[in-house]
Amino acid sequence: MFGSAIIVFRETLEAALLLGIVAAAARNIPGRDRWLLAGVLAGILGSLVVAGLTGRIAEMADGLGQELFNATILGLAVLMLGWHNIWMARHAQSMVSEARAVIADVADGRRDLSALAIVIALAVLREGSETALFLFGLASGGQAPGQIVGGGALGLAAGAAVGVALYAGLLRIPVRHFFTVTAGLVLFLAAGMAGQMARVLIQGDFLPALANPLWDTSSVLPMDSPAGTLLHVLAGYDARPSGMQILVYGAVLLLILIGMRLVKPLPRRAVAMA
Amino acid sequence: MKILSKAFLALVAILFAGAALAADVEVALVIKDHRFIPAEIRVPAGKKVKVVVDNQDSTAEEFESHELNREKVIPGTSKGTIFIGPLAPGKYPFFGEFHEKTAQGVFIAE
């Protein structure tokens, strides 16, 4: 039972941490809970469909359908996260200065929430479909249903607890710095996902690896250590990244930063002087 | 910003110049009774290798290797392709995440 709990925990962790960050980043936007819950539910539903279709997806494109599918999901999530950060760069200031005040333009807030709900749904879909496949395997391998459900629930609860802890921790950050911190977290999340997308495409030989690996820090910070896992999920840490991964990571980081800089409203003082 | 983008382009140029165009080598790997067969595979160093994993079990397995930086779910009774390398000479262990106790293997690049 513990074996299955650990695997379910590992798969849940990524989605749970993402949900914790996104829920924090979207605080003060009205209707947040409804949208994020819809994202989670859509993701769970989708993961069951994907798990059912895995055999067919895997055999598409000469046994590389899974890589194309995962790369598409990651790419979409990067787009949505990037869009959120650029949108937020425009709104964060008014959210801070008006403290608890909500966004004036509800429709505008709804667009951001729908992008974030899609990010959540995609993350749950990706991790959930792998979890479902693993649990199906246990079931057809003759393990008792009670054991499978118990182990799965334990892993899920542990993963969710880490996500909730991150969310609670983020809320303790003073409002003044709050949106800077969440913007930073989302920025690295997006870049990390872009790097993972590149890794998946290299694995399928759709992209050249270039230098492979560009460096190796596995003896300092191994991927399977708790810190390595956390950094992997939060910032796309990879102990042995290829050159292409770093290239894509850097490019996405730079593009989102430029986007955030371009839409940022002028400081009030400058506006008054103009 | 201009300097940054120039540095970025330079990095792109360097990395692409370093990309070797090696011919593909294909190896087959079977998963049966939650074990990899063969558990030890020799592959040429310095070449890109196409690994075709044939999962003959009815349950899914996740091929994973930290050393190779690879991770892929292979559904039950189906085949999947994973590209690895070009590798420096050495040992590259891999395992099946869903049955880690039994599903263990290693690539030996030489």
Summary, kept brief:
The complex is a heterodimer of chains A (274) and B (110). With 274 residues, chain A is mainly α.
Into which percent range does the helicity of residues of chain A fall? over 70%
| CATH H-level homologous superfamily name of chain B | Cupredoxins -  blue copper proteins
Structural class call of chain B reads alpha+beta
Oligomer: heterodimer
Derived structural class of chain A: mainly alpha
- By CATH reckoning, the class of chain B would read Mainly Beta
What share of residues are in beta strands of chain B? over 45%
Distance between the amino and carboxyl termini of chain A? 67 Å
| SSE order of chain A | HHHHHHHHH
The description of the largest β-sheet of chain B is: 5 strands, mixed
| First-last Cα distance of chain B | 44 Å
Strand order of the largest sheet of chain B: 3-9-8-5-6
| Main pleated-sheet profile of chain A | none
Number of helices of chain A: 9
* CATH fold naming of chain B: Immunoglobulin-like
What is the CATH architecture descriptor of chain B?
Sandwich
Low-pLDDT residue intervals, each spanning 5 or more residues of chain A:
270-274
Tell how many strands the DSSP assignment of chain B holds: 9
Mean pLDDT of chain B: 86
Global morphology of chain B: elongated
Write the layout of secondary structure elements.
The complex is a heterodimer of chains A (about 270) and B (about 110).
Chain A: H1 2-25, H2 32-59, H3 65-97, H4 106-140, H5 145-171, H6 175-203, H7 226-235, H8 243-263, H9 268-273
Chain B: H1 2-18, E1 25-32, E2 35-37, E3 40-43, E4 49-55, E5 61-65, E6 70-74, E7 78-84, E8 90-96, E9 104-109
Descriptive account of the structure:
The complex is a heterodimer of chains A (274) and B (110). Chain A is mainly alpha-helical and 274 residues long. Chain A contains nine helices and no strands. Chain A is globular and about 65 Å long. Chain B is an alpha+beta fold. Chain B has a single domain (22-109), classed as Cupredoxins -  blue copper proteins (Immunoglobulin-like, Sandwich), CATH 2.60.40.420. Chain B has one helix and nine strands. The chains are: A mainly alpha (274), B alpha+beta (110). The interface between A and B is large, with 45 and 39 residues.
